[in-house]
Fold this protein.
Amino acid sequence: MADLSDYSPTLTTSAAGAARKLGLGKAKTLALIHDGRLPAKQLDGRIRVRLVDLDAFLASLPDASSQAVRSSGKTGSSRQRVKTTLIDPERT
């Protein structure tokens, strides 16, 4: 009988699993993989993301409160403006 210490935890996840862990859609996650920003491996035609690469990718992202995020101009205000326009065109 095999010793339980011979078994290791799962080392990879699918693109869909990586998307769930990142809180993104599968299409966005695949785009990150194809752009080379999120490393991945291919095994029998299936994309696998190593969990250590997923952790490293997350660690490489800037903090939401950093100057880089503030200076990018992505504040979400345009999204709010679109929602307001769609819900009540008279308010714009």
Notes: The CA atoms of residues 21 and 43 lie 20 Å apart. Strands lie at 12-14, 41-43, 46-50. The first strand starts at residue 12 and ends at 14.
